[in-house]
Amino acid sequence: MKQFIVNHKFLSIMILVLIGSAAYVGGMLFQGGKTEEPQSTAEGETEQKEEMEPGKDKKVSIENTDGNYIEIREEREVPIEDEIPLSISEYELQNKIHYMSHQKIISSKKWGSLPLTMERVNRLIDIVESSTYNNEETYLRILKAWKNKDFSEIDDHHNTIWKMQDGNVGKATGIMSMEEEKEFIEHHYPDALD
């Protein structure tokens, strides 16, 4: 075998390149286009990766707190229509709902955050109503509850989307208090409470 490799260097290199390429393509197909997931450490624990998009780059301010709802105003650099185009995939739509729910739910792990604003909720409703998605009734039920400032089942809403995305770490176990939510906002959107 060694002699074959020495005598056929070019062929051997080509075979290695093909094997490497096949492994890379197989890995990409296996991932299925999902966003970043938790990474395992040497000790077998899962560590959280900090995501910047969407998340800490958002400039928001608290406008009003009313019962179980903190009104957030977001300073936009781009129009909402550019941030969330009509043509978003179902997985991207799920991510928007999933990331917004993190503002209000209790979970051992959360990846990604997006300010839960009425502007974003209304935009997603418009998109779902003008598009065709496999789970559009579920999305509309969740988003319309949020539009009506009903967050009494937001942990269940999170888990519904989380299950659609084959979640295995980070199941919601409850709903944050107003104080916990303010802390979350302050941590993820540092300019919010200035």
Would you kindly provide a brief summary of this structure?
This protein is α+β, with helices and mostly antiparallel strands and 194 residues long. It has helices spanning 2-7, 9-31, 52-56, 80-83, 90-101, 118-129, 136-147, 154-164, 178-188, and strands at 39-40, 46-47, 59-66, 69-75, 105-107, 172-175. It has one domain (50-188).
Structure explained in plain terms:
The protein is an alpha+beta fold and 194 residues long. The protein has one domain. 49% of the residues lie in helices and 13% in strands. It has nine helices and six strands. The chain has helices spanning 2-7, 9-31, 52-56, 80-83, 90-101, 118-129, 136-147, 154-164, 178-188, and strands at 39-40, 46-47, 59-66, 69-75, 105-107, 172-175. The strands form three sheets. The chain has a two-stranded antiparallel sheet. A two-stranded antiparallel sheet has the order 3-4. Helix 5 packs antiparallel against helix 8 (154-164) and helix 6 packs antiparallel against helix 7. The longest helix is centred in the first third of the chain and has 23 residues, at 9-31. It is elongated, with a radius of gyration of 21 Å. The protein starts with a helix and ends in a 6-residue tail after the last helix. 27% of the residues are buried. Mean pLDDT is 77; it is low at 28-57.
